[in-house]
């Protein structure tokens, strides 16, 4: 057996594994039809933590205020801003009696720690069900609270939603950002359906007050500057207590980064946080990335060497075709179908980007909350 024969056998095994993964794992989410849940009658606290977000609050807060839900408060947390964020909050509060402001001053022990500010906001909230979003985020319908909270039950105390990014025409960076976002969402939604929920995003996340305080809040990872959303979900989510909400009315939309360097900085924070996930989740994510990398790397070696190139090319096309169907259906479900034809290109670019970020994080620490 030659070295190339050995590489070919490994490549075939990887293709076989990925096909099974797409058909029997990600396929479950792709074919999922979520039934509409009955509207819940409990009050809700919508919690928004803002640091130097005066302009974004002016733009996006009205869409939260316009929600059609019957009983909810909006808890606005001013996290030691040095612009006029507090004044903007007070302006909205003077016109809407369901807005509560929590003004957080810098604390020496928790300097610049968003989790400290969020904890104070949560403690000030008067309702037992929390719904979180960001200051630069807007719900895409006035049914956002209704749809997200409809998935709460006596057993389901954590609800994972989809937080998409706004489209920017003729921008490759925007497509890459949205592709990475939708692929991450497909992964955490699918894992949640299989009882292995490992993360959520603070742009669209809900859980109960009881869940927060039983876990002692963020205390287990309070020294990690990021992760108020994904690390908390990673800590508290179980196969019994977590639900997903993927109705279009439940989506939120955020402003994407506009420069590649800003996005890389953001992704460095996210990737550095993942090392604090439970070990089983770290292993699963690393295997997923490794198989993606090896698929393209080994395919390139075999095709360049023209080693059984017909078989190799056929396997590449079969894998991509199955990926197109499964990921394409999932993208359509999440309102990102315009990315469909760019799947292989964006996947390759993302693999290279994540590898670069991983190496960079080994040599220097990323920046965190503003």
UniProtKB/TrEMBL annotation:
Chain ranges of the Glycosyltransferase 2-like domain: 45-170
SUPFAM superfamilies assigned to the protein according to its UniProt record, in alphabetical order: Nucleotide-diphospho-sugar transferases
Protein name: Glycosyltransferase
InterPro entries in UniProt: Glyco_trans_2-like (IPR001173), Nucleotide-diphossugar_trans (IPR029044)
Entry EC no(s): 2.4.-.-
Transmembrane residue ranges: 6-31, 283-303, 309-327, 339-359
PANTHER family linked to this entry: POLY-BETA-1,6-N-ACETYL-D-GLUCOSAMINE SYNTHASE
Organism: Mariniflexile ostreae
Keywords on record: Glycosyltransferase, Membrane, Transferase, Transmembrane, Transmembrane helix
Family: Belongs to the glycosyltransferase 2 family.
Listed GO MF terms: glycosyltransferase activity
């Amino acid at each position: 057996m030659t070295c190339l024969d050995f590489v070919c056998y490994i490549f075939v095994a990887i293709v076989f594994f990925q096909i099974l993964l797409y058909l029997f794992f990600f396929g479950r989410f792709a074919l999922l039809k979520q039934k509409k849940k009955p509207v819940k009658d409990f009050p809700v606290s919508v919690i928004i933590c803002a640091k130097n977000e005066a302009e974004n609050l002016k733009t996006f807060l009205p869409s939260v205020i316009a929600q059609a839900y019957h009983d909810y408060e909006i808890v606005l947390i001013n996290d030691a801003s040095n612009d006029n964020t507090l004044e903007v909050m007070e302006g909205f509060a003077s016109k809407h009696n369901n807005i509560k402001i929590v003004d957080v001053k810098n604390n020496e022990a928790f300097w610049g720690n968003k989790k400290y500010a969020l904890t104070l906001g949560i403690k000030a909230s008067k309702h037992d069900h929390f719904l979180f979003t960001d200051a630069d985020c807007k719900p895409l319908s006035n049914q956002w609270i209704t749809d997200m909270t409809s998935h709460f039950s006596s057993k389901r105390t954590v609800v994972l939603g989809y937080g998409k990014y706004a489209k920017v025409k003729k921008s490759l960076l925007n497509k890459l950002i949205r592709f990475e976002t939708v692929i991450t969402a497909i992964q955490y939604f699918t894992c949640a359906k299989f009882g292995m929920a490992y993360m959520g995003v603070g742009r669209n996340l809900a859980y109960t007050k009881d869940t927060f305080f039983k876990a002692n809040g963020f205390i287990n990872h309070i020294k990690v500057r990021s992760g108020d959303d994904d690390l908390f979900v990673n800590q508290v989510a179980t196969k019994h207590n977590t639900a997903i909400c993927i109705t279009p009315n439940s989506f939120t939309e955020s402003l994407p980064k506009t420069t590649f360097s800003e996005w890389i900085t953001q992704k460095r924070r996210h990737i550095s946080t993942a090392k604090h996930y439970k070990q089983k989740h770290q292993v699963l994510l690393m295997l997923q990335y490794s198989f993606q990398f090896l698929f393209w790397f080994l395919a390139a070696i075999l095709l360049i060497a023209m080693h059984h190139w017909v078989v190799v090319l056929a396997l590449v096309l079969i894998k991509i075709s199955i990926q197109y169907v499964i990921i394409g259906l999932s993208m359509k479900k999440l309102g990102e179908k315009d990315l469909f034809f760019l799947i292989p290109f964006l996947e390759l670019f993302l693999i290279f980007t994540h590898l670069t970020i991983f190496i960079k994080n080994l040599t220097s620490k990323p920046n965190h909350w503003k």
